[in-house]
Amino acid sequence: MTPILQHRTLSAAILDQLRKAILDGTYPAGTQLRQDALAATFKVSRIPIREALFQLDAEGLVRFVPQKGAIVSELSADEINDVFELRCLLEPRLLARSIPNLGRDDFTQFGTFHTQMVAATATQDLSRWGQLNADFHMALYGHAGQPRTLSIVHSLLQSSDRYTRVQLSDATGSGMDGMQRAMSEHTELIDLCRSGAIEKACAFLRQHIASVHEDLLRAIERGSREETP
């Protein structure tokens, strides 16, 4: 392995671990991520740590604050609106271009995702469910032929995962309902894609994303009320 490739692989591995730690709550909102401490933890120089933090900043999971460095971003309605409004714009566009190119293997893969999500729901494995949900959406758009837009959507889905976990872990019990509704909507979306109903599929996808958006705003609002003395 060349030094450049080895460095990139190391940086990507650190990025994945830090992202997972933020998403699963190991590093909650407001946590300061000190580069020297992380470098010591991972037994690396500060260079791959800095690169990973810059990528997390681009994904909206951390923000850089003067005199403090990288801080895990707060959950906010403004961020949710930004992420989900962009998703509503970009994902239907990708889906419209991808549907004509979907084949038998793609629909087999969609079915596999559904089976795995059913299993994750049964065990309430939020981490696994969130990753499968993102992978399913990315697979839907895989034949769009727009790699730059797909890269942007991939980043948006990673940001969405953090908020979706808030919704799915909702103590009111609506989280389980949200999982089951999402899988039911995925099934309907797959059927529309299989039939080649591009306009209906895109409209349904937009509605699907908007529904999650509204649920998340309600979950954030409930959390704010519960925290208010």
From TrEMBL:
InterPro entries: GntR_C, TF_FadR/GntR_C, Tscrpt_reg_HTH_GntR, WH-like_DNA-bd_sf, WH_DNA-bd_sf. Keywords: DNA-binding, Transcription, Transcription regulation. It comes from the Bacteria. GO terms for molecular function: DNA binding; DNA-binding transcription factor activity. Coiled coil: none annotated. Residues 8-75 form the HTH gntR-type domain. Transmembrane segments: none annotated. It holds the Pfam family FCD. SMART domains: FCD, HTH_GNTR. PROSITE patterns: HTH_GNTR. PANTHER family: TRANSCRIPTIONAL REGULATOR, GNTR FAMILY, TRANSCRIPTIONAL REGULATORY PROTEIN. This is GntR family transcriptional regulator. It comes from Ancylobacter pratisalsi. The lineage of its organism: Bacteria, Pseudomonadati, Pseudomonadota, Alphaproteobacteria, Hyphomicrobiales.
